[in-house]
Amino acid sequence: MSGFLPEVTIFPTPEMLAERAAHEFARLSQASIELHGRFSVALSGGSTPQAMYAHLAEEPLRSQVDWGRVYVFWGDERCVPPDSPQSNYGNARSRLLQRVPIPEGNIYRIPAEMEPQKAARQYEETLLRYFGALELEEDRERAAFDLVLLGMGDEGHTASLFPGTLAVSEPTHWVSAEYVEKLSAWRISLTPALFNRAAQVLFLVAGANKASTLVTVLYGSDQPERYPAQSIRPNTGRLRWWVDEAAASTF
Ligand code: 6PG
Q1: pLDDT for 174-189, tens place per residue?
Q2: What digits encode the pLDDT tens for the residues 61-79?
Q3: Looking at ligand 1, which atom is closest to the CA of residue 210?
Q4: Other C-beta atoms within 10 Å of 116: how many?
Q5: Counting atoms of ligand 1 from 1, which one is nearest the CA of 160?
Q6: Nearest 10 degrees: CA dihedral of 120, 123, 129, 134?
Q7: Distances (CA, A) of 220 to 1, 4, 54, 207
Q8: Is the previous residue joined to 111 through a cis bond, with omega within 30 degrees of 0?
Q9: Pocket test for ligand 1, best of 73, 155, 158 (most atoms within 8 A of CB)
């Protein structure tokens, strides 16, 4: 990300990273609800945020979040049923959502059991409706998550924006469905067109296996097609990278 100095915080262990991230989620939820009455968040999949979700489901944080004003979306989803162990929705539900008093109507699951392209179009309509942008094109400008949580794969993907996929440079659509050759699987992902409208973007990255890619993504030349995590650069919002020492070991 030449010429762009990222905001990076290094934590000694993944456990400390997860706990601090849970506290930051609670803090941001309070600030967003105070500012405009709700907290719209796109959750990340994968394993890194699971411990964070568990912290949010326990006291003291559980009571510090006004769950009735929290609206949950996903940054991406695997094309599996919601009860699959692979489901990002299923994991967040078991770790967090079924353990806190969040109304069912506040949870916007990606319908990933559907035909992928149809699921992507349907979820995009859900997002447009939620952000009040279904009617007029210019209303899209108002759409912005209060918080987007993201992880990074060891080759530089984020959400389900994988190297070489069209979604990385999709200029208009907010949701894409793509067959990922590397995984031999379909994935549904929000695109940078929506991610980059967020007020806050927080990457959580842990593990030595990500160290060489992380230093390239953060401090190397701009190659978002090769390292899709580099395509996440909020238009006006704050971008932070919270990593553990193992992931930062080549800094
Ligand atoms: C997914 C995620 C994906 C994840 C990274 C890191 O659906 O898997 O959205 O982008 O964040 O692959 O995954 P880990 O946290 O398991 O390392």
Answers
A1: 999 999 999 999 999 9
A2: 999 999 999 999 999 999 9
A3: 17
A4: 18
A5: 10
A6: 10
A7: 6, 10, 34, 19
A8: no
A9: 158
